[in-house]
Specification:
- The protein contains 3 helices and no strands.
- With 72 residues, it is mostly helical.
Amino acid sequence: MRTTFFSETRPVDWNTVKVADKTQFAKFFQKMLENGVYLAPSQFAAGFLSSVHAEDVIAATIAAAETAFEAW
C-alpha cells in the first residue's frame, strides 16, 4: 500500500498527516488523471501496488508524475 502526502513534515501519524496540503494533493491527483494514471482520490485512501504491473506501466506512471510535478 502507498499514498502521497504533500507536507513539510514527514507523515508518521494522524497529527502529521492531517496537516498535509490537500489542495496540492488534489492538483497532483488531477494531473495524474489527465495523464492516464488513476490514483485513490483522497490522500487518506490507500493505493495498492501489484506484482503484475509491468515495466512499461511503471515507466508510464513515473513519466506522468514527472509531468505533474513540472506543472508547478
